[in-house]
Amino acid sequence: MLGSGAVRADAPLTGTQPAQWRVIWTADPATQATVSWSTKEAGSSHSVRFRVRGSEDSPAEQLAESGRYTGGEFESYYHHVRLTDLLPATAYEVQMVSDGNESPGFYFVTAPATDRAFSILHGGDSRSDQDARRRMNKMIAGLVVDSYDNDDLADDILAFAHGGDYIVTGTKMELWSMWLSDHELTTAPDGRLLPIIPARGNHDKGKPFNEVFGFPDGDLNYFGFDIGPQVRFTTLNSETSTAGDQAHWLKAELKESRPTHRWLVTQYHRPVFPAVKTPGSGLKSWVPLFEKYDVDLVCEADGHNIKRTVPIRDGKHDETGVVYIGEGGLGVPQRTPKTDRWFLESPGMADQGNHVFVLKFTRDALQGTCLLEDGTVRDQFTRPVRE
């Protein structure tokens, strides 16, 4: 592996020593990835060294896009390297370098370009309780390690989709810095970085969200890409207008993707079939499109509870409909769900507790497992391939 020194999660943010490392997927993850990190001081030269893992070739080096994070008096700096033309299903060694200070050596793996089984994680709402957030991050790191302990490719966890609300106040960079340091705990002991697929939550207002995740200034934060040729994963932004341009984009996205993909999955923050709150505006803007184009699974957050709806179409239980899961348990205090709502009644479910969903994609089924913080399986479900 590039560089030297053991991987240390939760590294301090000092000087121009690279810290708060992360890999971000917002475009074709088979060939692209954003490698990001932070420094306490601005520095003058920032780059990433990278090469195929295990290669004896000299590493390539690419300069970073850098700037000061916005958000209060807390001073720190972001650095993003947008890697392109990568090889699918390939492990890449990476090392961040700022003013000659090197990070430990890490690696990440690009998404496959072939039709193979795999898994991803989904969760949301990691704000408020830092101790619980750190425990959940350590759990995530353990799940990733365990997923590669056998020869079943379907178990391999490729990425982590986060449904938003990372911190309490999105304009306070001091809180973001704490989240970023805690996110290091998702790093596996051997230096594997788990790519994150970010969605914006209602607590994530302000410029820091784009600066943390490498979006251009003013980006509207909705996008879609393939994870393998048969899984289309779409991230929406419930914190801007869900109608208008975003709804038109979603219609075109789903219309194009449905005929060519086995699985359509969407994530965003505010639930449209909530277990606690009132429905978000996506109920009118997005749900008719989800149903028209037969989205297989929708991942929500915001409610601070566990839920899985019955399949829904035209406002009622219909086995041909869309299933909604959520609603956020990556460290946030939990609320009591309203289990008498029709869409949560059996065979749906609702509960509370810190949790993360494991979503497994195979040729025959999309299998979901809700794991509590102690590893207990709280819920399991299967979505068959649509005829």
UniProtKB/TrEMBL annotation:
Membrane spanning stretches: none
Source taxon at top rank: Bacteria
PROSITE patterns to which the protein is assigned, alphabetical: FN3
Short name of any one Pfam family annotated for the protein: Pur_ac_phosph_N
SUPFAM superfamilies recorded: Metallo-dependent phosphatases (SSF56300), Purple acid phosphatase, N-terminal domain (SSF49363)
Keywords attached to this entry: Signal
Record bears the keyword Signal: yes
Entries under Gene3D superfamilies matching the protein: 3.60.21.10, Purple acid phosphatase-like, N-terminal
Limits of the Fibronectin type-III domain: 17-113
GO molecular function, one term: metal ion binding
Keyword Signal: yes
Name under which the protein is recorded: Phosphatase
Organism: Rhodopirellula islandica
